[in-house]
Amino acid sequence: MKKLLISLGVLASLHFVHAQTITSKKWQDIFSYNNVLAMKEDNGKIVAATENGIFYYTISTGEITKLSKANGLHEVKISAFDYNPQTKIGLIGYQNGSLDVITPAGITYVVDIPIATGYNGSKKINHISITGDKAIVSVGYGVSIFDLKKKEFGDSALFVSGGVYQASNEATILNNKVYAVTNNGLKTHDLNTTFPVFSTWATEVNGSFTDVDSESTVAFSSSTSVQLLINNTFTTLPQTFTNVQDVVVNGDNIVVADINSVYSYSLTGGLIGNVSIGEECNTATRINSKIFTGTKLSGIKNEERNTFKPDGPYFNDSYKVRIFNENQLLVSSGARVGGFNESIDNPKNPGFYYFNGMEWVYPSYFKGSSTKFNVLDAIADPANPNDIFFTNYSNSPGQGIYKMKYNTTNKDFDFTKLYTVGADGILDRRPVGFAYDDQNNLVADLAYSEGKYPGMAFYDRGTDNFLVRMVTLTSSGMQQPLFNQGLFWIPLPRSNEFLVYDHKQTINTSDDTEYIIHQSNGLPSNSEGTLSVAIDKSGDAWIGTFTGLRILPNAATEIKSNPQLEPIVIEQGGIAEELFKDSQILQIEVDAGNQKWVSVDGGGVYYLSASGEQTLKHFTKENSPLPTNSVTDIKVDKKTGRVYFVTYDGIVTYQGDVGDVTSGFGNVLVYPNPVVYSNFKGKVTIKGLAEKTNIRITDAAGNLVHSAVARSGYYEWDLNNQRGTRVASGIYFVLMTNEDGSDKATAKIAVVN
Fold first, then answer.
1. Beta-strand pair 78-84/290-295
2. Which terminus of the chain is more exposed, N or C, with fewer CB under 10 A?
3. Torsion over CA: 384, 386, 392, 396 (sign)
4. Which residues form the signal peptide (predicted)?
């Protein structure tokens, strides 16, 4: 198995795609690996497929490694998987119909399944079964053969009768014969020239069947029964099951994963044994007479109920993230529906996830709760970080603000209190988000106060309650507030307005003042409302709307005297146009160098220069590990430069070049270094710079070859000299001073052409 471990390292760096390479060492995933969909054993190692990635568990050593879109795969939302231990080739199917072929030489992305003319159904890959160098792929229209050597599709059998397509739920190949289970029976056909013709397929057994597998024999199941092929006859096992999740033919035994238990049988149908899992499972396998189960919520589980999986959040559902105490995280799992903070019907009913600096913790309070949760925000009390507040934005019982306390002994949360944020009986005071002021006063903003107004709720530590003040506006909705320069800045998504709230640094609401930005102040005339806000290091407010971006210079002062917002105008091909015109701006984040990360709904994330006039990077799901092109939150760890991108399908991080930028130098780092042209043809990055850095680069003789001024905490040199031509091979010295000359730094760069 050491050979497979080595190949995994290769997989992370070698992948063959129909577009550009989308991963690098700068990316990491923060995915949930709890929900194991399929498993395969390879000489003591279990290869397990989950919603957003694959992980490898070595039974003897406990070693766990993972493979995801952050280090090799090309998609998320895995729906099918199989692996051949003999060839070391795996095949991953996704909900969007694409495939990843995993081999020891790399990963190949197959963009799409072949779609029949007239078929308009789901492209989701329902199931994959590998036999030798062929895989049978089950989809909504029937089955297709995939050649693993050629990495291309062959024949497809379209299960269509009277113009109506039948899905293949699962299919397998044994002795050159295909067995496919459908809602209309077990279908079979030899792999011959008439295979694509549906009328030549035989219905072996009538009924509705969900699972099938083969190796030494064939087994298939409905939700409550399992049948085996014994002496060329299908025989039903005497056991009646509760809800069969999977059937696996595993050498000389058959493993049946029922909803809460796993049963193993001989090839003749004799019961070998059963194991109670204690929770819902998806699949199971038998290795050296021991049962290993792929669960919905705990990764891989053995007979002793020990669990094995990469650490991560409980679910992938994510909406907002907060960073506190340097390396701790709080992730809220709520959602906006149709562009608004509507209550949702998520069957998982997730709450919030907490990373305590060492491991992820999911409060047991949310497990099995009958309360309907839509957690739009969670925040730690700066005065006592073990106290966590979260909002439950809902129109159901249980709506309100919750207080929880982290119990460091059992690594769980204890419920403390539910605050109804207002008069009893007023159900429609829905808390959205939080902010702390500079006196550690907590404020929550409320939507639908009295069913029609926004509101502000201030936490009174003395009475342990919230003081509510309604704001008379046409907007009934609000977004997460931002506190900056003594003011709360609040987007209003249900009216073309923006609220700035002055609480006079107290929780006494009698003297509070509101400032409202309207269309007359420069908001786009065609916008339905405002969605996001950030204040940059120059004191300018960047406001995201449903139809573009607006800037309010010197915001804290200008907001009090008829403010005028400005768009960013850029030149494209000699034509001036507004940046992000008619785009929904979901989130804006400012890094330590005053550059801006901007999330555009459906358009990925843009990394802009401080002024916004230059695009430094543009990440999408097509050219990066982003799970989707709609990123609901962005946070930058100002100390490390690590950027968190939050989506409904999970979280990924990117190691940015801008860390803790101050007037002096940090830990100056140059990379790559040395720069070998045959290996690297990009720019050299110098990071750890001051807010304003004067840079002079000389050759070994002291001749000036390049000079620049960096204003962002890092600088990229294209290795060209003052004349614009590439410098010769040699050692180059980087001499740097900060703005007032009070701090200096040097570095060396080796260039090999």
1. unpaired
2. C
3. negative
4. 1-19
